Hints:
Pfam families: DUF397 (PF04149). By secondary structure, this protein is an alpha+beta fold. The chain has one helix at 45-57; strands at residues 5-6, 19-23, 27-32, 41-44. It has one domain.
Amino acid sequence: MDNWRKSSYSGPGDGNECVEVAPTPARTAVRDSKAPARAVLTFPAPAFAAFVDALKARPRR
């Protein structure tokens, strides 16, 4: 996958909690941007979208 993008929630610059995602029509891949050569998690696109929607609906602390 070559369409990785850093989460806007990772913070400015390098951030301390960096996550990158690479969506495709069928699946979404997630990796740690500080260790991109390590394991990548993949999820069915609808499941990942539901996960993100649930996070957005939560009140911020």
